[in-house]
Amino acid sequence: MAHKQEKAEAIERLREMLPPGTTIYVANKHTARSGMMRVLSCYKVKGGRIHWISCYWIGLALSYAVDRRREGVRVSGCGMDMGFHLVNSLSYALHGMKDKGDGAKPENAGRPFTPRRGHFRAGYSLKHEWL
């Protein structure tokens, strides 16, 4: 039961820290020899300063393992952009599985959409960039 409460607290902290439209910068700290696992660390820029986003909170929110030595989240898999996968999964976990605001209107389907406060497409409320 404590795990569910910790997960809910981590999601709430991350929601406060990462509103829709936030760009998350991802750094690859380690790649396994097989290429099937990566340790990724996340950052955001606010007020011209770089802020590390706790891998512990991200790990709890997404139920991913944390590599404390490398200070990152372990993401398994290959054949796709695993940094994008991490940010996309975090976007769903923090902001839900449904479009909100203008992104939810049928007439906007298939059009480019820029997230802003309260308006985003499900899974794309956060932006991703590699460091």
Defining traits:
131 residues; alpha+beta; six-stranded mixed beta sheet; 6 strands
Protein model, in words:
This protein is α+β, with helices and mostly antiparallel strands and about 130 residues long. The protein has helices at about 1-15, 55-60, 80-95, and strands at about 25-30, 35-45, 50-55, 65, 70-75, 125-130. The chain has one domain. Strands 1, 2, 3, 4, 5 and 6 form a 6-stranded mixed sheet that branches. Helix 1 crosses helix 2 (about 55-60). It has 3 helices and 6 strands, in the order H-E-E-E-H-E-E-H-E.
Task: Give the topology, please.
Blueprint: H1 2-17, E1 23-31, E2 37-46, E3 49-53, H2 55-62, E4 66-67, E5 72-76, H3 82-95, E6 127-130
Parallel strand pairs: 1-6
Antiparallel strand pairs: 1-2, 2-3, 2-5, 4-5
Q: What would you call the structural class?
A: alpha+beta
Sheet-strand content, in percent, reads 25-35%
List how many beta strands DSSP finds: 6
**What is the number of helices?**
3
Alpha-carbon distance between the two ends: 37 Å
Which spans have pLDDT < 50 for at least 5 consecutive residues? none
Largest sheet: 6 strands, mixed
- Overall spatial form: globular
